[in-house]
Automatic annotation (TrEMBL):
Location in the cell: Cell membrane
Gene source species: Pseudoalteromonas nigrifaciens
Xref: InterPro entries: LeuE-type
UniProt protein name: Leucine efflux protein
Keywords: Cell membrane, Membrane, Transmembrane, Transmembrane helix
């Protein structure tokens, strides 16, 4: 059983957090600009799956270990930064390698670019220790020990957050794609969009280390 007052407070706080611009939204917009709405949706699904993984970690206590161990925190932090940096470098590299594109194809919609986007987003979320600490610091505030099992409530709120944030991510993707369409008709613009996307990924890697 869930405390109704806590549930309302949780939904309100989750809305404000999901709407506020942050690294996840930057990743979503970068993928949407570079690869289109489909890639943006794949990113949103990836972040939702990452939230499920973090919920599992929080419930079984792995997140508490991460919080208590500076070595474990740093290891995950550097792994996440390295992964984002790798994505950024590969994106930048792709802009300097010319591939033949049929005229009937849209330059930004390619299977090669978008097939792993969901996995990339999920790993970006999972390898972000700040997200892990967010789950362990934010969600327990809404657990009412006088009601049902604390573990059940942690799992409930932990799974509810990505479900609640997903439609907001979709709104970012929708409007981002509308803006990006203006630039995608020009192949030269697409190259610069990809380069900016790569720079955004590298900037997110640096931000993760701060």
């Amino acid at each position: 059983m869930i405390n109704p007052d806590f549930l309302v407070s949780f939904l309100l706080a989750s809305f404000l957090i999901a709407v506020a611009p942050g690294p996840s939204n930057a990743f979503l917009m970068a993928q949407t600009f570079a690869n289109g709405r489909t890639a943006g949706m794949q990113s949103a699904f990836g972040f939702a799956l990452g939230g499920v993984v973090h919920t599992f970690f929080a419930v079984v206590g792995l997140t508490a270990i991460l919080k208590a161990s500076e070595v474990a925190y740093s290891a995950v932090q550097y792994a996440g930064a390295a992964y984002l940096c790798y994505l950024g470098i590969m994106m930048l590299k792709s802009t300097f390698i010319k591939e033949p594109i049929e005229q009937s194809d849209k330059p930004h919609i390619t299977t090669k670019k978008s097939k792993n986007v969901m996995f990339q987003a999920m790993m970006t979320e999972v390898l972000n220790p700040k997200v892990a600490l967010f789950f362990i610091a934010f969600i327990p505030q809404f657990v009412d020990p006088a009601l049902s099992s604390a573990t059940f409530q942690l799992a409930f709120f932990g799974l509810l957050y990505p479900l609640f944030a997903f439609p907001i991510d979709c709104a970012y993707i929708y409007f981002g794609d509308k803006i990006a369409r203006f630039f995608r008709d020009n192949p030269n613009s697409q190259t610069w969009i990809d380069r900016i996307t790569g720079i955004v990924f590298i900037a997110l890697a640096i931000n993760l280390l701060l």
